Amino acid sequence: MPTIKNHNSTVSIDPSSGQVVNWSKNGVNFLYQGSSVRRSGIPILFPFANPLRNNTLKYSGEQMPQHGFGRDVAWEFEQINDKKAIMKLASSALTEDLQHKYPFQFEATIKIDISDAKSSSTLAYILEIENIGDVDLPIAPGIHPYFPLSHKLKPDLKIVQDEEVLDISAINWEQEMDGNFYEFKNTQVSLENFDLTISCNNPDLYKLVLWSQTPAKDDSDFICLEQFTRDTNGINDNPILVQQGKVWCCGITYEVALHSA
């Protein structure tokens, strides 16, 4: 699997799904490694996140699966070197069936950049979506990172946003969940081996979604702290509309500080 490295920080990327699969430093994995690639790393949710009402995209009247197709298709490396990777997905590369279901022309780009300090590591994730068609391009993307966290420690999870503790007391970690929606602000959380800070440069990414599973499933020792641009069914109800020839861009920064030994 292609890898980029900056000193002691390493990131592995799977172009078959446009996905950051692993990110580590000094033997510490910052992303959960699950029973499948889909249950690992940072999947891309494109052109929308979460399920659609009746699983139907209103623009085509066709059914589409939860989270769209971005994580299910191959992306092409435009650049990869020691510290940076750039992947692209063009609508022209989709199957005829997908082009029919999502009848818009676009070029999507994921840029991954890592930096390394003595006891910390930073992953910069940039998503750019260009409208190369002749009508407005509706999108409602999201990012779906998995972070390692033992199931038994989830009730003690503390999330701080702009110096205020987020109230997640209503979550029952022993029940299956669809995802708990909160307002996204700069977020800090302490996990088992590192402290994590998440920040974003685009107010469109205004939803924080918490999701996990119970030990009844194959994977449970993780917490997803997802960044969404819209609520469920947002691409139908309230899409981001990218005008012809324009580029929508958002950058998310994940910074970890290792716990001292």
Q: Could you name the CATH class?
A: Mainly Beta
- The number of helices is 2
Mean pLDDT: 96
Distance between the termini: 30 Å
Q: How many β-strand stretches?
A: 23
Residue fraction in strands: 35-45%
Shape: globular
Q: What is the name of the CATH architecture?
A: Distorted Sandwich
Order of helices and strands: EEEEEEEEEHEEEEEEEEEEEEHEE
Low-confidence stretches: none
Strand order of the largest sheet: 8-9-10-11-23-19-18-15-16
From the helix content, strand content and strand pairing, which structural class follows? mainly beta
Sheet of most strands: 9 strands, antiparallel
> How many domains, in number, for the residues?
1
Short note summarizing the structure:
By secondary structure, the protein is mainly beta.
SSE layout and pairings?
Layout: E1 3-6, E2 9-14, E3 19-25, E4 28-29, E5 44-45, E6 56-57, E7 62-63, E8 76-80, E9 84-90, H1 96-101, E10 106-116, E11 120-131, E12 137-139, E13 142-143, E14 146-148, E15 159-161, E16 164-165, E17 180-183, E18 187-190, E19 194-200, E20 207-211, E21 222-228, H2 234-237, E22 240-242, E23 247-258
Antiparallel strand pairs: 1-2, 2-3, 3-4, 5-13, 6-7, 8-9, 9-10, 10-11, 11-23, 12-22, 13-21, 14-21, 15-16, 15-18, 17-20, 18-19, 19-23, 20-21
